[in-house]
Amino acid sequence: MTPTRQAAQRGSAQPGRRRLDTSVPADYDVPTRQPRLESPTTARYAFAATFLAWVAGVAVAGTAVVAVPHPAWIERWGAALLLVVFSIGLTHRGGGHMRIWTVASGVLALSAVATELNLLVAGAAAVSAILASVWAVVITRPARSAIGALKEFVLALAVALSGTLAVAAWNAPVAYQRFNLVVLAAALTLAIAFVWNLGAGLHGLGKQNIAIIAAVAAVLLVLLAYSSFVRTHGSETVVEGITNFVIWMRETVGGVPRPVEVFIGFPALIVGVSLRSKRRDGWWVLVFAVLGTGVLTTSLVSPGAYPSYIALSTVYSVVLGVVVGLVARYVAMRQRGSRASRSLEPTSRSEPGRLAPLK
């Protein structure tokens, strides 16, 4: 039998291209540390105690923005408790050394409450905002559907809002613009280090994700550069027009959406958790989600900020950000090319549970 006929017979036995069946999620591709607590019962009690501490911290720190009768001194104790909880959550999720970072955060919190030194209080407020904004992003899980992405978005929003209450309860004497920039820069740096530590290096990025990240970075650069340019070198007509528009929005609807949250932070959160369900490099999109949670955690740092105005601005930012995020998710998750059409099932990726360390 000639080689040509043999090849023809093999082709008739297996017609067409071989399809990839990825219905079963692949194993998690990052080594994780051993459980800190060997007893499952002890671990459950520890998680329950941490959750109750988070709830108690939110309730006590919330007295800083809700008009209820309370001693003024309890506000910072609630913020101190939240600072320790944020440190525990982020350290556990990243597989870090709990004895080092939890003790360090506890010492900072107690020192700030006991001494009331401006430097320590400002430092505690900044650390609370940084840890809360990053933990709000990394506590999420991969989402394979739009509904799942919205659920993860709501969870991240709840954690970030608890950070907002902690910052408000510290009532730190800071220059709020400088404070915001420091928190955003530090949170972004910490998020990049966290993602890099998971093994999601730049070498693993595909062309599509590089394009997404480059587009997000370009939008961020344009927004920051334009806002800075307008504030410093903008004409009086432009500055006055923007000011009048903000005043009109406040008087008409009671709040103003924040562009960083609407166009970068919140959409990146929705797209990032969706891409993580397919590829590990979806974490790089979530790095930009820290900008949205970071802006949210610092929104009440100024003593002159009205909680009602911040609340309405956050609601408008959430609504618009979800719309932009869902559109961006549709574009990012859409199957492209012949390889995608040849797959029987969309690729899926597994990760440890929400309460388990990622590394």
List the topology elements.
Elements: H1 3-13, H2 40-61, H3 74-94, H4 98-115, H5 118-138, H6 146-170, H7 176-197, H8 207-233, H9 236-253, H10 259-276, H11 283-297, H12 307-333, H13 337-341
Helix pairs in contact: 2-3, 2-6, 3-4, 3-5, 3-6, 4-5, 5-6, 5-7, 5-11, 6-10, 6-11, 7-11, 8-10, 10-11, 10-12
From the structure above, extract its key features.
359 residues; mainly alpha
What report would you give on this structure?
Helix content is 70%, strand content 0%. The protein is an all-alpha fold. α2 runs antiparallel to α3, α2 (40-61) packs across α6 and α5 packs across α7. It is globular, with a radius of gyration of 24 Å. The relative contact order is 0.14.
Question: How do you describe this structure in short?
Answer:
The chain is mostly helical. 70% of the residues lie in helices and 0% in strands. It has 13 helices and no strands.
Q: How many domains would you count in the coordinates?
A: 1
> What general form does the structure show?
globular
Please bin the fraction of helical residues. 55-70%
Fraction of residues in β-strands: under 5%
Number of helices: 13
Please compute the radius of gyration using only Cα atoms: 24 Å
Question: What structural category do the secondary elements indicate?
Answer: mainly alpha
Which runs of at least 5 residues are low in confidence (pLDDT < 50)? 3-22, 340-345
**Average pLDDT, all residues:** 82
Oligomerization state of this entry?
single chain
**Ends distance:** 56 Å
Number of strands: 0
Order of helices and strands: HHHHHHHHHHHHH
Note the main sheet: none
